Amino acid sequence: MSLNQQQKPKAINLFTATCIVVANMIGTGVFTSLGFQVVDIKSGFTLLFLWMVGGIFALCGALSYGELGAAMPYSGGEYYYLSRIYHPVVGFLSGWVSVTVGFAAPIAAAAMALGAYFKSVFPIMSSTVIGLAVVIGVSLIHSRNKAFGSYFQQIFTILKVLLIVILIVCGLFLAEPQQLGFLPSGGDINLIFSSPFAISLVYVTYSYSGWNAAVYLASEVESPEKNLPRSLVGGTLIVMGLYLLLNFIFLHSTPIDNLVGELEVGYIAANHIFGSFGAKIMGIMISFGLISSISSMVLAGPRVTQAIGEDIPLFKLLARKNSSGIPYFAIILQLFIVTVLILTSSFEAVITYLGFTLTLSSFITVLGVFIYRLQHPEVHRPYKTWGYPFTPIIFLAISLWMLVFIFIDKPVESLTGIGTVLIGFIVYLFAGKNKLSWTSAEEKFDFISAYKNEEKEARFFDK
User: Fold this and answer.
1) How many domains does the chain have?
2) Which residue segment(s) compose the domain that 395 sits in?
3) Residues near 64 by Cβ (< 8 Å), separated by ≥ 6?
4) Are 324 and 146 a contacting pair, CB within 8 Å?
5) Residue 221, beta-bridge partner list
6) Is the dihedral of CA 172, 177, 180, 184 positive or negative?
7) What's the pLDDT tens digit per position in 351-369?
8) Are 311 and 1 in contact (CB under 8 A)?
9) Nearest-5° angle of CA 49, CA 50, CA 51?
10) What is the CATH number of the domain that holds 321?
11) CB of 385 closer than 8 Å to CB of 47
């Protein structure tokens, strides 16, 4: 990866970058995970507090990633940051997780949920076939033209946000209120510090995952030193507000016993708000809304694979672009992994496994904010984490709490996540470790030198 990369025309403005963040975040989780949370938690206050904690967690992460993204505005996300902050092997392992499951698993989960919602309206249809067809279609769209892909992303994101707003407004005025209290009571403290709360937080943080989406395409964002932090924080705040209101509507409109263990939470709530016919229309709209989530991850994920291909000769095919400047082979690889997951995995297993591995990766990245400041205080930072050091500390504390509880309660999924990382380490050993280390060290020297030279700095930020 060279500094000349920053001189290429930018195709992603602030609005599109924010749409990518919002679309990545608003996906399967908010329309499905409440059913798993109410199995052990019956308190309206605790359930909404759960989503509040998840929002604070995501916001603290977005604020921290904003600093790294503004200081190192290259595509690749954690792979790029961790290679420069720690060691190339750490960056590769994070990239390996992103390439193998970090994007593919959420895409698969979104496709499963889309298929389930569509099948609830049209029982004759196969949920698996519908999910696969959408993933293939969206992948083809994003492999053709970058500008068209951006417009496609914007349109479906706006439609999805409008859908949620309609659902919230109608739920407030049309639904029959349920007998569920939302004010705190004496038993809520014990619930908040319980194992079910920590495990449920995994589902919630999965629902909020995507708050870091824009950093994976940083090289293609206009004025990334300004727009990356704005898109991360702005998108996270929008989603946090929508999530709190949407979950309030689900609980306000639907008997909690009807939600226990159910996947199609949005469809069930819509049935209580609009009736059976209205619920079918809402089910179709939710299905179309999930296309936005799939689209945003199909757009972002291959950029990590491309960055790895640019650094490691063994994977250079994955860095190859088509005539439109799109990493075509990286998209094909991601599509293959998604297809395997859709055909072989369950929704719940995918989410728990994914929650452990991605939480571990983001924990190491946010910790890198402290380490990078100590290592390179001379580096120009156009944006510094608001609330530092408290905001990254809050993120790290919640992450550590979740990791411990997940490992205790879900050891199989946790060990599978650790196994994925170990497999990545073995791959790294056979993928030209010396070449990767040499490239990263040279690029790191050039990167820091760019900030010390005003002419290079101006070119670096494409001013």
Assistant:
1) 1
2) 3-460
3) 365, 366, 369, 385, 391, 392, 395
4) yes
5) 12
6) positive
7) 666 777 778 888 999 999 9
8) yes
9) 90
10) 1.20.1740.10
11) no
